[in-house]
Amino acid sequence: MDRMKKLLSALLLAALSPALLLAAGSLTKEQMVDLLKGIDQRVKSPGDYKSLVYIEQREKDKPDVAREALVYRRDLDQKLMILFTKPKTEAGKGYLRVDRNLWYYDPTVGKWERRTDRERIAGTDSRRQDFDQSNLAGEYDPAFIAEEKLGNFAVWHLKLTGKPGQDLAYPLVEFWVDQATGNHLKRQDFALSGKLMRTSYSPKWQKVYSETKQGEVWFPQEIRIFDEIDKANSTLVLIQSVDLQALPENIFTKAWLETKSR
Amino acid sequence: MKQLILIALRNLISHRRRSLMLGGAIAGVTALLVFLGCLSSGVRRSMLESATTVATGHLNVGGFYKVTAGQSAPLVIDYPKVRSIIEKTLPDVAFVAPRGRGWARLVSDEGSMQTGIAGVDLKNEPMLPKVLKMLEGNLQDLAKPGHVLIFASQAKKLKVKTGDSMVYSVLTDRGVNNTVDVRVCGVAEDMGLMTSWNTFLSRETLARLDQTNDSVTGALLIYLKDMKRIPEDMDLLRKALTAEGHIVMDHSNKAFWMKMPEVNREEWTGQKLDITTWEDEISYVSWTLQAIDGLSFLLTSVLLIIIAVGIMNSLWIAIRERTREIGTLRAIGMRRWRVMVMFVIETFCLGALGTTAGAFLGCLVALGLNALAIPVPEGAQFFTMSSTLQFSLDPGRILGGAVVITLCCTAVSLIPSFKAARMRPVTAISHVG
What we know:
Oligomer: heterodimer
Number of helices of chain A: 5
């Protein structure tokens, strides 16, 4: 008799759970996918994109290193260039992505080196993805974790699992999305082993109007990245200005970066 | 000839002070050359010992695997087949050790460092227990999954000891971040530059970190019974692997990791094998040997020039002092060439005695310092490849050095001896001075 009662209770709970979750502020799979598509769409810039970025790196037992860089993007062709302008020792160094290959140029040796697409930018905790367009909906399958409070913000807490066949630096990501604006405020990246690798916060978001998009392009003004393995390390990325004017045609070439490096 | 030798020796004894000064200088230079030669041989021996334990076999079959043109990994796919070709082809293989190669960030609670990883299977590595000197812990625990062996300088930097936990963090060859938790199974004594950044992990744990399967390894380390066969075996292996359909890279005397930027620039995908020698794999540290040898050569050359000038001067003085004696000898019938040979033999005897004494002295100092096992400061270990000062006596090298110095001294005496032999007997006998 007891077993019967338990079975009935379980069936009842299973039947009522979607309703309970909704009442608690849950999202359906479709809603989560739409949310991710929304995030991708908000930061998407169909035309050209140029931003001035300040990167500050903090490492244990080492002096802080501050860098300034110009980031150029042409999302339609998936092109990206990062050109360091400060300090003097770093000026002229740069990354160029051509056809899924990331190249690194160091003017002191005058050579191009092919690097992995997921490498740390200039040895910091930032990755190419932090400066590039977003494709969360294409790369990850979302799962709902909870509706939470992140400081004063009401957020959706999602768990994103890499889709099969996608080449991803972090196969598992936890994401906190602001319910009011749809911007993500916090992100945690996990290694294949399930270990937490880094936590990043994007508390401030800005928007600029794009003629090409006929709409607004959003960008995080500030990204704070904390290394969760080497706990003393952190990186601050400040996107100081964004310009959506058309860039010269020949900008995404090795020759252009080399001329800027001289 | 016996008479000439006797005259030369008596002459050396009668001018004791001059002979002692010149002989002492020759002995000093020889001792320095021998001492530096022993140091160079000691460093070479330490280098061979540490390199062939930590980083390389006598011969290696490594290679690169490229999933895409832009991403290479130091991997040998389906290594059992390559291993069987090696064992079939080479007649004098002592053993073959498949070893994983990796590069990752090792993080402790107190610090972190980039390290090279040697993924080892202890049952395939009979040399490791013989060469690694454990300061603490147990090397055999390295056979257990999730255990790491580190070296003293690394333990100091990471502030860890046996039993402590750490994390390896890596971007795998497929571009996915991965980690593995490890426990320190032991700390071994430093062995120079190579052990400052190399760590040992079980092959299984490295495979878990790098997400590779059982048939994949970093390189096959080949240990030969006779190292003199290395060039011959290298050729045999190249032909055999090519005949079996493998693509073998052109020989380049660089360590595998120094080739990665070049390989990444090349537009190919798949597997290419690379055959290297132990000297190729440590080419980035062999400059220390060249530096010691260069320094020995420079010092010896400068000192030899000074000695040559001294020998010439003293011979000129001797000839001047013995002009009447030369005249008399010529007058009683001694031929010119015998006069010349008399002076040459004198210098040869001086050189031979000086270099023999110098070689003994150099060997004694080197052996004495070796016995004292003088610890080398951490910074200098990059050059000495060992935590204590190591000297090694190489008889061929010592004998060669002594012979060269003796011959140099003898050659220098030819001009004054020739001049002495050309004196006219009448002029020589009537010489006053």
